């Protein structure tokens, strides 16, 4: 077994007897309680770990700060902001907030996304007793974007294709978790951490496709965010993976806060938060596309063309080639000789008598 296969195997199987177990039969909020945070830590999934910062954090901050024309005063007015406030304050249920708030945060975008989908097909990132992820909102690629050989690869299937439905986004690496007016911001953070770890593993599986040794570059390629309607607060996080601390351990999954914004306070605060949110979605899409294209290229290179297969299936011995060339030359000479005799006979053939008609 290669080092990469061994690493993946460790990340997919239950680990230690000390690890806590969080049952999936609990209600969704209770399943993400304080015990769940310890459960994540036991399996090397770290909630808002400031001690481990992604190597591309500075570059990421700069990229996410770029202004967007869609949020300029001419495109997003005071009346638009007041409408957002109403949609934040009016809902009584979390499900209503999920329906009304994300479309305004996202703006006009064609990024493939889905809401409230249970990830049924992924290997547990902790243990089989843990609740399955069910993000309120997430972005991913279309299934058809992946080469067929990649879609059929067991390592990719178990890490990057969340459901059996062909229209649900795959390789998800941007998530939003929402809590309603009476919700719990800490629960949203744990949910986002859990989502982000799965997203990070999905990207990492693509990054390591066809590699013999696991790559841990220390960069973040996955984002998660939380929105708490009770205070109108938006938080954004980056996620990255680092190598196991020891040979027999699992990889370490890290979540680090990028920033936070009070979205209902004033329009300028909203613009800053929405700008970074939209830029993060675009950034996640670029990362996702990059690793998909790189993996597709590896899959294509691994498949020889039909002509290459034909050439490989009909090898020639050098002596056979020489004999074939000699015979072919003799045959050509014989054909030329026969053609020459035919021409000579045609030239010496007696001409028919001609009669002059009077």
Automatic annotation (TrEMBL):
Residue spans with biased composition (Polar residues)? 18-29
Sequence segments annotated as region (Disordered): 1-33
Q: Mark out the compositionally biased spans (Low complexity).
A: 1-17
- What is the protein's given name? Uncharacterized protein
- Organism for this UniProt entry: Metarhizium anisopliae (strain ARSEF 549)
């Amino acid at each position: 077994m290669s080092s990469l296969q061994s690493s993946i195997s460790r990340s997919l199987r239950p680990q230690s007897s000390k690890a806590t177990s969080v049952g999936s039969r609990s209600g969704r909020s209770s399943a993400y309680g304080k015990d769940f945070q310890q459960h994540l830590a036991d399996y090397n999934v770290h909630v808002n770990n400031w001690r481990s910062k992604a190597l591309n954090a500075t570059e990421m901050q700069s990229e996410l700060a770029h202004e967007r024309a869609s949020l300029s005063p001419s495109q997003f007015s005071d009346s638009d902001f007041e409408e957002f406030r109403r949609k934040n304050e009016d809902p009584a249920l979390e499900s209503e907030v999920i329906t009304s708030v994300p479309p305004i945060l996202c703006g006009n975008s064609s990024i493939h996304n889905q809401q409230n989908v249970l990830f049924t097909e992924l290997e547990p990132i902790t243990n089989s007793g843990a609740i399955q992820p069910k993000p309120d909102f997430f972005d991913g690629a279309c299934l058809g974007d992946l080469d067929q050989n990649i879609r059929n690869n067991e390592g990719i299937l178990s890490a990057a294709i969340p459901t059996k439905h062909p229209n649900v986004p795959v390789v998800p690496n941007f998530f939003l978790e929402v809590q309603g007016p009476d919700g719990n911001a800490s629960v949203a953070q744990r949910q986002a951490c859990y989502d982000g770890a799965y997203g990070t593993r999905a990207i990492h599986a693509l990054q390591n496709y066809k590699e013999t040794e696991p790559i841990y570059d220390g960069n973040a390629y996955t984002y998660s965010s939380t929105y708490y309607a009770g205070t109108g607060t938006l938080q954004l996080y980056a996620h990255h993976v680092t190598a196991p601390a020891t040979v027999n351990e699992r990889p370490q999954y890290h979540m680090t806060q990028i920033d936070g914004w009070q979205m209902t306070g004033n329009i300028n605060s909203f613009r800053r938060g929405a700008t970074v949110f939209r830029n993060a979605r675009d950034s996640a899409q670029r990362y996702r596309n990059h690793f998909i294209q790189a993996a597709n290229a590896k899959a294509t290179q691994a498949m020889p063309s039909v002509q290459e297969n034909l050439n490989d299936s009909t090898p020639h011995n050098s002596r056979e080639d020489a004999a074939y060339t000699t015979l072919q030359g003799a045959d050509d000479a014989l054909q030329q000789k026969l053609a020459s005799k035919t021409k000579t006979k045609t030239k010496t053939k007696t001409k028919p008598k001609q009669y002059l008609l009077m």
